[in-house]
Amino acid sequence: MDYLSLILLSCALAMDAFAVSLCKGFSVKRLNLKHYCIVGAYFGGFQALMPVFGYIIGLSFASFIASIDHWIAFILLGFIGIKMIKEALENEDCDINANQFNFKIMFSLAIATSIDALAVGISFAFLEIPLFIAVLFIGFITFVFCILALKIGNKFGVFLKNKAEFLGGAVLIILGVKILIEHLFFNA
What we know:
Blueprint: H1 3-27, H2 33-61, H3 69-89, H4 103-127, H5 131-156, H6 161-186
Helix pairs in contact: 1-2, 1-4, 1-5, 1-6, 2-4, 2-5, 3-4, 3-6
């Protein structure tokens, strides 16, 4: 996977956390540094950590399925992308807990928004991606997107929420197709 694809993947994975951060920003009358640090650290940290767990899981059975690894990456990315698009089309409102930043709420939101990153981490084991670089990109981009989303949500509301999730899903599907095409036509 080239760096542009890795950046696009990182942006796509950040979209769930971006959408939740929009709601968080919208729900708070006045943002302060604490809000930015909490949201950035939880979402960026978990988005970076989950691919590591996925990678470890993927390594445990990578040798057994090496001949179909491209199909697995395609299916995982496609499934996650379709799920994100479906969620974007459901037009949900912000959660009633959007204005809460305590450990329990933030931990559960960070896990929920990073499950996709766990699945992508599994595909990293098959794609020979430099894990350290991938994790840095994913964590940093998610951190930055969430900081921006807090500010945007606070200033303008949540009008970008569904668009961000839809775009993230579409990018994941495109990356899955790209991986499959590259393997089928260029690595044969």
